[in-house]
Amino acid sequence: MTQVTLTVNGKSVSRDVPDTMLLSEFLREELRLTGTHVGCDTSQCGACVVHLDGRAVKSCTALAVAHSGSAVTTIEGLASGKTLHPMQEAFNEHHGLQCGFCTTGMIMTGVDMVNRYKAAGKALTPEAIRKELEGNICRCTGYHNIVKAIEDAATRMDGMAQAAE
Amino acid sequence: MTVHKPRPHDAAPLHVAGAARYVDDIPLPANTLHLAFGLSTVARGRVVSMDLSAVRAAPGVALVLTWRDLPGHNDVSPYPLFREPMLAEDEVFYLGMPLFLVAADSHLAARKAARLAKVEYEELPALLTLDDAIAADARFEEGPRIYGRGDLAEGFGAATHIVEGSFEVGGQEHFYLEGMVAAALPQEGGDMIVHASSQHPTEIQHKVAEALHRSMNAVRVEVRRMGGGFGGKESQGNALACACAVVADRTGRSAKMRYDRDDDMMITGKRHDFRIVYRAGCDAEGRITAVEFTQYCRCGWSPDLSLPVADRAMLHADNAYFIPNIRITSHRMITHTQSNTAFRGFGGPQGMVGIERVLDHLAHAVGRDPVEVRRLNYYAAPAGADPATPQPGAAHRFGGAHSPKDWLPQPQTTPYGQEVEDFLLHEMTEALLTSSDYAARRAAIAEWNAANPLLKRGIAFSPVKFGISFTLTHLNQAGALVHVYQDGSIHLNHGGTEMGQGLFQKVAQVAADRFGVPLETVKITATDTAKVPNTSATAASSGTDLNGMAVKAACDEIRDRLARFVAERQQADAATVRFADGRVHVGTESFPFAEVIRDAWMARVSLSSTGFYATPKIVWDRIRGQGRPFYYFAYGAAVTEVVIDTLTGENRILRADILHDCGASLNPALDIGQIEGGYVQGAGWLTTEELVWDQSGRLRTHAPSTYKIPACSDRPPVFNVALWEAANREDTIYRSKAVGEPPLMLGISALLALSDAVAACGDGSVYPALDAPATAERVLWAVRRVRGGA
Fold this sequence. Notes:
The complex is a heterodimer. By secondary structure, chain A is α+β, with helices and mostly antiparallel strands. Chain A has helices at residues 23-30, 86-93, 103-120, 126-132, 144-164; strands at residues 2-8, 11-17, 49-52, 55-58, 71-73. Chain A has two domains: 2-77, Ubiquitin-like (UB roll) (Roll), CATH 3.10.20.30; 86-164, [2Fe-2S]-binding domain (DNA polymerase, domain 1). Helices cover 38% and strands 15% of the residues of chain A. A five-stranded mixed sheet of chain A has the order 2-1-5-3-4, with helices on both faces. In chain A, helix 2 packs antiparallel against helix 5 and helix 3 packs across helix 5 (144-164). Chain B is an alpha+beta fold. Chain B contains 19 helices and 29 strands. In chain B, strands 3-5-1-12-9-10-11-20 form an eight-stranded mixed sheet, with helices on both faces. Chain B has a five-stranded mixed sheet with strand order 7-15-14-13-8. Chain B has a four-stranded mixed sheet with strand order 16-27-28-29, with helices on both faces.
């Protein structure tokens, strides 16, 4: 057992956990943050994506102890209060989901993608979205509306950044 | 009106917030046990000895069970005539078959312990491939099923071209994103509550009751949602639910079982792979005179749902084409591999890809555009169409040099004797060929191919005619339970399950429309065997058709009571009472719905009702292969363009255009989602999704690292999907049509387009004969074949 201290969705949490505990397990079992899903157990499907110190990672293959001291944002921490993040709004409005199991990972990857492209000053084209989403699998939608949602959210997030400035 | 509107999925706000609860997310008591199966490591053998001492001694392990320890039936089969043990009884039938059950204090502890067994087998010869099974004549049922009509000898005698071939159609892993999972919570007096990721809660209830040796009324099964099902959760979740219930019953602790993805793929069955052998004849123009199919269906080790799957493959061997002389012979072969099971389309896609291959091959033989040959062979347009203005492709209805006399009666019938009463594909095809600019693109592709030696493009059209109804007639029934509470809020329950398809929202739209209230007034609740009993699986695309009608019946019963109450109070005729805009209208007056409900409650009017529906008109004799198995047909058509690399076989879908028939769509947004997803899943099945077993019977593609379902970059960059908006001629719920399965078969156009691109690599004399899935390797081999190589 090792003590793991993380800042999760802005709150500091500390738990004694086995060294083998995955970050996904830590979030789901220790903190009951079940919006992070485990789809393939082998970092292929992307259902478990969270943000670790601002970068998207697949939490099903990250060890909790290896990241003690880091800040984690999960799907539950994306909205501000009752106001959904623009990426969440866009998935809702563009029918970017069916069974919903991949959705939280898609949204976390989408936010990370938009942030990275914005930081690099690159345009996030539909082609780029399709390429960037290769690590997130959806079995239901055929991806069409997911790409549309991320494209739209990227525009909305521009607006959000401007409003904040 | 809340129907015919593109409302988002009801749970979308929960999904985007990570607040939608799946079975693995349900809070369970702290001492819950986590389960894992120990799996067979050989494909077939007798268990000589099984030493589980190391498993029992492993950290965290609370209980280890073999079949000898089970309190009730050791049978998780959905097929009543075959016993399928949950835990192998001294003999194993596939590599991955559950042998023993471990309960431990964590998921990881259970899985690690399950690896510690020392099992000695006396290995027996295993049948692993279709060739093995055919050589051993290992089959379910006493012999092949044969459906057909007409006279093959006469048909082939009238043919000017005859083609023959044999091709392989691969299986498909469901890869529902949420793996199999169940949880059981023990109750007082031996009762059990089960949460399952299942398309068939009633069957879970039935199997759990048998496993516990109790009656069904001791077991309550709840399913709020699945993270995808696609048929994979119709029968094969039984084992997890029974395992959880047995452990919970024995220990008094709740129990949960979730298959790790690799275990899921090793244990559970997939789409049936087929070998289809064909011989087909046509006249000089391409009009079919005879077709003979032999379908070899690989069932795996147990029947599961294989017999109805194989039946449905036979029932779709005609797809959209009138075939005067046809024989379909279906062999249901046994192999010592996972038991193949339901998968979106349920055999229909395999049957359909067979006849589409034949049409393609015949078109090649007569040297015509495959679209023209397809239209030439379409079923006649609906009876009543003006014969003076023949529909494209319907000319054979009016006789001709090669038309036998018995083609004249209308409407035409399928080989199994069902009349094709609303054949929409003539008009749909015309519309799609125009909107996709097929002819001009085909010409442009030919030109482009002539100028490009390394890359070749291909384009293909394919139609879908899919039969809607369970072929097991008694399954075509559904129940519902609707309560209106005294504050005017509505509680909705029915036997269908939600797996992402949007069933709950569509049915809620129906309920809201019946009462004329906003959709928000209707609370959608989890499927629950204690609320609606004896339900059928949510399968066969029938979820909305059946449950929508049952809910309508329940709502209308309450509505009628309210109408009588209001009419009496207002001295009006009950028939004139209307429910709209959140109000109850009577004469010139209207009252808020909630107010009427409160008054009705005060006046002691019952505000709760069940509803029931049984599909009319269907009769089916599966042994003779005659009757009307389907209430109606759903139609669709697709044009796909691809490009291949002739040096590597790598390929890409460039564009897909789809026109699909959902009747009068209850919810166009959800229906289009089903169509887009179905197409991509169908194209994946026939292109990249390859299942590989090694010589020991071990599935080598048991994770997404090696089993490739379409990724985002695989979806066509140009993807045009439109609905064919025409009301269902049958009296379905708001005249809509089922949409779950039919669009999957639109993906057949991707396989045909690859074949077209391969054909462009040679001089056109060799038919590409591309097997499915058309992986890069297979495309490369086919390119070599048409160029005269090996």
